[in-house]
Amino acid sequence: QVQLVESGGGVVQAGESLRLSCAASGRTFSDDHMAWFRQAPGTEREFVAFIRRSGTAFYANSVKGRFTISRAGNAVYLQMNNLKPDDTAVYYCAAMVGLVPSTDAGIYDYWGQGTQVTVSS
To answer: Quick check: 76 and 13 in contact, CB under 8 A?
Structure first.
């Protein structure tokens, strides 16, 4: 059974940091593109960052320079620095089987259950 399990969310103050982790199991994900998305109440799921199977990364403009995505084996991480209240959302890990990574959530094949990040001002 394929599973993606996120952890590391929590409640922090603006300017603080969090590190999210996503543990993947049930298949080998090293050949997949991995990504983080987030969803705030009443909004669409939003792209945050993806990391290609090669290890190169791409970020949404809203998080560029503050967030760093990385991967190791069947795990993917999101280091979030200088957090802002607008970063408050449920964060989801996703995996995509395919040649070209995407910022479109509909393209991704596997999803975790999400972890809540709350940033207070």
So the answer is: no
